Amino acid sequence: MTTSKFMKFGTTFAGLAMMAATAAHAAQLSVDARSSIPKDVQQIIVVDYKAMQQSPAAMQLKDRVLPPELKRLETALKTSGLKVDRDAETLAFAAFRAPGADGARILGVAQGQFQNAQIMANFAKQKTKPVMLRHTEIWPMGSAGMSVAFLNQTTMIFGDREAVKSALDARDGIISNFLQNSEMMNEMTAVDSRPVWSLLDQKGTQTMMKSVLGEASSLADYDTVKQRLKSARYTMDFNNGVKFNMYVVTSDTMTAATAATLMKGVMILKKTSGSPLEKSAMDGTTIDSSGGTLTVDYSSSDSNFASLLGSPLFQQVVK
Asked: Of 58, 81, 159, 210, which has the maximum CB count within 10 A?
């Protein structure tokens, strides 16, 4: 999967804020899950799967923006006898850099209460044979070309075989893992109490901002801003409506203010050509900067958000 396609999945949420109560659920990663993600993460997206299934707005959004490669991962899980819909509580997708890889590799992590004995019995019934890597079995998942490995009763990792091998190398200490990425670990403490959250490194942040700004990213002001973007994080809540919050960390106050000005300009342009519903969404969006951080906040009712998903402006964001 190319990095740009993965970024489209993650940054569509940021694009929604441009067009467009603390949740009771949280998508937190266990130590086992964090240790299985390689250190050089470009973007990580974590979802409280149970909370998402309970929100029609969240499921509509997922169905519209999930790229084919991640749909293939999800389908492979559902058709492999793993009963993800029933057993998974948290799903994470991480795009990470691997030596010799063409672009980013994508790793999936699922947390829940898995019926490992039943899963192994199903593999045996299908005469599925694992590949051993040190002391861990890597199981193929049907004909999708995906593999899965169980770290324990509550955590599984999945993706193409090379991604799973990299994850096991990270877990076993052969390569550095996410726990050793101090910058992202620090950023995570600000977001992992939310049902949907994402972290981006500098390159991921640059890609996201270019996608959000569209034609404005060709302006000279953005060339100055781009090199001073450091990281980004965003969250979404689907409890009592839809709430989106994004924070882009820059190197200084001036850069954050300039980025906010560019984004406000884009919003004004979209507002002049949008439908009444789209204009209402713009009114629900606040863009500001404080210190060296750009902030974007958006809120909507479930019904307005569902209508917005069918609007021309949404189609422009996700195309």
From this structure: 159
- Is the Cβ–Cβ distance between 138 and 165 less than 8 Å? yes
Strand, coil or helix: what is 8? helix
Helix intervals (H) in 79-160: 84-87, 116-125
Nearest to 98 by CA among 6, 3, 213, 190: 3
The per-residue pLDDT for range 110-159, each reduced to its tens digit, is 888 877 777 777 777 777 788 888 889 888 876 667 888 888 888 888 88
Name the residue among 67, 85, 69 with its Cα closest to residue 77. Answer: 85
User: By the 8 A CB rule, do 120 and 127 touch?
Assistant: no
Helix (H, G, I), strand (E, B) or coil at 38: strand
CA distance 290 to 269: 24
Q: What share of the chain is helix, strand, coil (3-state, %, to 5)?
A: 45, 25, 25
pTM of the model: 0.79
Judged by DSSP in three states, 170 sits in: helix
How far apart CA 76 and CA 97 sit, in angstroms, is 23
Cβ-count burial 10-24 (b if 16+ within 10 Å, e if not): bbbbbbbbbbbeebe
Query: E strand or H helix at 105, and its extent?
Result: strand 105-112
Number of C-beta neighbours around residue 257 at 10 A: 18
Q: Supply angle C-alpha 305, 75, 121, rounded to 5.
A: 135
List C-alpha distances in Å: 116 to 17, 107, 112, 247: 40, 20, 11, 39
